[in-house]
Amino acid sequence: MTDKSTLTLGDMNVELPVRKGTIGPDVIDIGALYKHTGAFTYDPGFTSTASCESKITYIDGDEGVLMHRGYPIEQLAEKGDFLETCYLLLYGELPTAAQKKDFDTRVLRHNMVHEQMTKFFNGFRRDAHPMAVMVGTVGAMAAFYHDSTDIADPHQRMVASIRLIAKMPTIAAMTYKYHVGQPFVYPKNDLDYAANFLRMCFAVPCEEYVVNPVLARAMDRIFILHADHEQNASTSTVRLAGSSGANPFACIAAGIACLWGPAHGGANEACLNMLEEIGTVDRIPEYLAKAKDKNDPFRLMGFGHRVYKNYDPRAKIMQKTMYEVLEATGHSDDPLMQVALELEKHALSDPYFIEKKLYPNVDFYSGITLRALGFPTTMFTVLFALARTVGWISQWKEMIEDPAQRIGRPRQLYTGAAKRDYVDIAKR
Ligand code: ACO
Question: Is this model's pTM higher than 0.90 or not?
C-alpha cells in the first residue's frame, strides 16, 4: 500500500492518508472523510477499525503473537513477575533493579483499602454475583480517594494507577470472603503480590495459612497472561468512558461491567460450566455437533477469538500452568482436564473448526486451573478483572496523555422513520 489511498464516492475522488505502524497492518486515516464527502464509514463490531494509536500491546492474530511494549508474552510469563509486567505496561520499559524495588514497594505498601469500604461491602446481598460487587465497589473508590481523581494532573494519574493495581487484589479478596461468608483478611506487606492475594482469599483466623510457592507463581503467571490485550471490548469501554474526562475509578468500573459478559471475560466461567456439563469424553461428539449446528445457540466456550485465527499464545502457557497447579494440588487425574484435552483434540481436527480457524483461547484451560487453585467459578471473571486493571489503566493513561485525544463519539447509519408530524393521541 502507498502513503495515500483514494476513495471514489459517486463522482468524487478523495485522497486519504495511509499511516504505518511499527509492525502490523497499515491504517487508512478517515478522520477528514466526513468533511470532504458528507459520508460516514460503517463498521459495527469494529472489525476493520483502529479506534486509537497505541504503543502498549501488539497482537498478530494470524501468527498467534502477543507482545507488550515489544516483549513476547512467553518471555514475560517465563522470566518476569506480574509487577514487572505492570511497570512495563505503565512506563513503557522494563524496570532496572532499583526501579523494580521501588515500584514493588509502592504497590505492596498501598494494598489496604479505606476501612469505611468494608461497610460498603456489607450493603450487598451475600448471594450477589462477585462481579456485581466489583462493579459497585471499584466505582465507589472515587468516593474514597478524592486526591487522585484530577485527571489533568500527571501525579494524580499515576497515584490513581498505583492505587488501582495495589488495591484491586484486596477488593477482589474481600469480594470473595463476603461471597463465602468469611471474615475479611487484611493484606500482609512481606508477601509478594500473588501470594498476598491467595492469603487474603484463603486464610481464616482460626489457623495458620502457608502460601504454596508453586501456586503463588501460577497465580502470578495467570495475572501476567491477562494483564493487557490491546483494544478489546472492556479496554475500549475504559477508553470511551475516560474520553469524557470521567475519573479513573469510574472508568475501570465501566471496564469491569463490560468484562463480565460471557463473550468476553465471562467465558472462563462459561467454559468450566460447559466442561462439567459434558462431563465425560464419550459425550464430546454430541457437544461438537451442537456447536456446529446453526439452529443451536450453543458455542464451544473457550474456543474462537475475534483477533486470533491461530492458537492463542496465552492458552499454551495456561495449559502448562494447569499441569503445574493440578500436580501441586494432587489433582493430576482431574477428569475435566481429560475432557478438555480430548475436546481440544477433536475440535482441532474437525473441518468446521479448521475452516473457521477456531482455536482454544486463554479461557479454555484457565477454568480448570482456577478451580484447582480453590476458586469457585463465580470468582473467575473477578480474577481476570484484577489482572486486567493494569492494562485498562495503562491504556487510559496513554489516551489522556495523547495530544490528539478527543471525546469518543461514534456516528451511526440511521434507518428509523424520516420526519413526520406529531399525531394527537385521540387520532392514533
Ligand atoms: N463455537 C462454535 N462456533 C463458533 C465459535 C465457537 N466457540 N466461535 C465462533 N464460531 C463460528 C460462528 O458461529 C461463526 O460462524 P458463521 O461464519 O458460520 O456464522 C464464525 O465462527 C465466526 O464467529 P463470530 O461470532 O462472527 O466471530 P467473532 O469474532 O464475532 O466472535 C468470539 C469471537 C465472541 C470470541 C466467539 O468466537 C465466541 O463466542 N467464542 C466463545 C466464547 C469465548 O470463548 N470467549 C472468550 C474470548 S477471549 C477473551 O475474552 C479473553
Answer: yes
